[in-house]
Amino acid sequence: VQLQASGGGLVQAGGSLRLSCAASGGSLSNYNMGWFRQAPGKEREFVAAIKWAGGLTRYADSMKGRFTISREIAKKSVLLQMNNLEPEDTAVYYCAASRAVWTSRASLYDVWGQGTQVTVSS
């Protein structure tokens, strides 16, 4: 499985962006899909995850209510809708896939996309 993230950009505080992660190269039925982010000088941080089979979701506490993760089965893609963005959300956002492990730990994700930059101006 290969992942390609897109949709990042520059947005003002309070604005919205939708990130997309397109998967190719294999079935996602045994994968859990996640979004992570990494700001300069900081560790990679869990954002949200979704089980491809069934659609169960989980979020980091600081993202609940502002971010929504979803999947488009026909397009083999995972979306991250981000609303009410704050300058603190500025980071490179990565999508990732974990085979059969339901986790927020980045080290347990097997496949990573290349990242997309999100910049929120104040």
List keywords for this structure.
122 residues; mainly beta; seven-stranded mixed β-sheet; 0% helix
Explain the overall architecture:
This protein is mostly beta strands and 122 residues long. It is built from no helices and eleven strands. It has strands spanning 2-6, 9-12, 17-24, 31-38, 45-51, 57-59, 67-72, 77-82, 91-99, 111-112, 116-121. Strands 2, 4, 5, 6, 9, 10 and 11 form a seven-stranded mixed sheet that branches. A hairpin with a 5-residue loop joins strand 5 (45-51) and strand 6 (57-59). The chain is globular. The model has no long low-confidence stretch (mean pLDDT 95).
Question: How are the secondary structure elements laid out?
Answer:
Elements: E1 2-6, E2 9-12, E3 17-24, E4 31-38, E5 45-51, E6 57-59, E7 67-72, E8 77-82, E9 91-99, E10 111-112, E11 116-121
Parallel strand pairs: 2-11
Antiparallel strand pairs: 1-3, 3-8, 4-5, 4-9, 5-6, 7-8, 9-10, 9-11
Low-pLDDT parts are: none
- Give the overall silhouette: globular
Strand content of the residues, in percent?
Answer: over 45%
User: What kind of assembly state do the chains in view correspond to?
Assistant: single chain
Task: Measure the end-to-end span.
Answer: 37 Å
Count of DSSP strands? 11
Mean pLDDT: 95
Largest sheet: 7 strands, mixed
What structural class do the secondary elements suggest?
Answer: mainly beta
